[in-house]
Amino acid sequence: MLEARPRACPRCKSRLDDSAPAFKPPEVEVIWDFIPEERRVKATGWKRYSVKCPHCKRVVFGQTPDSCFGDGMAALVALLHGRLRLGFREIVRFLQDCFSIRACLGSVAKLCREASDALGVKYDEILKAVQGSEVTYVDETTWRNEGSRAWLMTAVGEDATVFQIGPGSSHIAEVDSLLGPIEGERTIVSDRGKIFDHLPTCNRQ
């Protein structure tokens, strides 16, 4: 059990030690995380103290992690939703049944957004690698996202593969955004679907 004790008053800047009068009994918070190397869920308990500043009388709380879930749990939820295509309700049920973790739909959606934001920089690096390949294979197909019609486009370069999913039907703009500049002797290999008809003939197979 870790302890979160306030050490300074944000109002008057006075230092707070263990002798500061308690405002109320400490609250216990649990942070859930997934350890991929060990393939297990880890629960870390925090005892959060609150005290009243003896100088300005302000109530000050100890600082605990902002989220009840760690980065590993965010990665696990993103895997379940993005790779295994489980809906939010199924993920909530999975966490409850397998690990006795109570999560709401909003928490699951937030974890997916956090994982997406964390992958943003890496995704840009992968996309740049694909767009820099002399030969790029590209394909597009229909998809279902949250029960709605969507599209899935894949581009495979020499050292990396990138996927894009979008709502409705794909457009030329999405193809150009995925493939990047097509210049020189760069070759794009596709199934010659209509969505790729605008690509330069001399660079297309």
Blueprint of the fold:
Layout: E1 2-4, E2 22-35, E3 40-52, E4 59-61, H1 71-83, H2 88-99, H3 105-131, E5 135-145, E6 148-156, E7 161-167, H4 172-179, E8 187-189
Parallel strand pairs: 1-3, 5-8
Antiparallel strand pairs: 2-3, 3-4, 5-6, 6-7
Helix pairs in contact: 1-3
Q: What is the average of the pLDDT values? A: 92
Q: How far apart are the termini? A: 61 Å
Number of helices: 4
Number of strands: 8
What does this structure look like?
This protein is an alpha/beta fold and 205 residues long. It contains four helices and eight strands. Strands 1, 2, 3 and 4 form a four-stranded mixed beta sheet that branches. Strands 7-6-5-8 form a four-stranded mixed beta sheet. The longest helix has 27 residues, at 105-131. The chain starts with a strand and ends in a 16-residue tail after the last strand. The mean pLDDT is 92.
